[in-house]
Amino acid sequence: MLNIDEIQNGIVIDHIKAGTAIGLMDLLGIAGNRTASVALIQNARSKKTASGRKDIIKVEGDASWLNLDVLAYLDPNISVTIIENGKAVRKEQPKPPKRLVNIVRCKNPRCISSIEEECDQIFELSSNGKYRCVYCEQELQVKPE
């Protein structure tokens, strides 16, 4: 059995779809951060997931720099547990953000965000629960894997 120490202060991102945590770490900027201690657990057993497997990310230290809003867009089943003084003080289910900035790219080849390199990729949550490009109204079709 694999044993990973508990963290004293930080966060635990749990119930990540098995095999996707490395991409999620890149997207959140965890992989490039040199100040945080990070534990990545892949293919852990899970009774809650259909596949029976999940990934877990533990971040020790100040995690206030993480943009956790994007987690609900990527996977609505992800949960975040806040750890303080070795105790879980709060468990959250992230809500879909109203706006995604530079998370996904617009697929419309005529969109200004596809043509101009310095233009941010911005999508807003519409009333029908789907994200649309703020420049060309292109709707996002599927969530990334």
TrEMBL record:
Residues 100-141 form the Aspartate carbamoyltransferase regulatory subunit C-terminal domain. Residues 2-93 form the Aspartate carbamoyltransferase regulatory subunit N-terminal domain. Keywords: Metal-binding, Pyrimidine biosynthesis, Zinc. The keyword Zinc applies. PANTHER family: ASPARTATE CARBAMOYLTRANSFERASE REGULATORY CHAIN. This is Aspartate carbamoyltransferase regulatory subunit. The lineage of its organism: Bacteria, Bacillati, Bacillota, Clostridia, Eubacteriales.
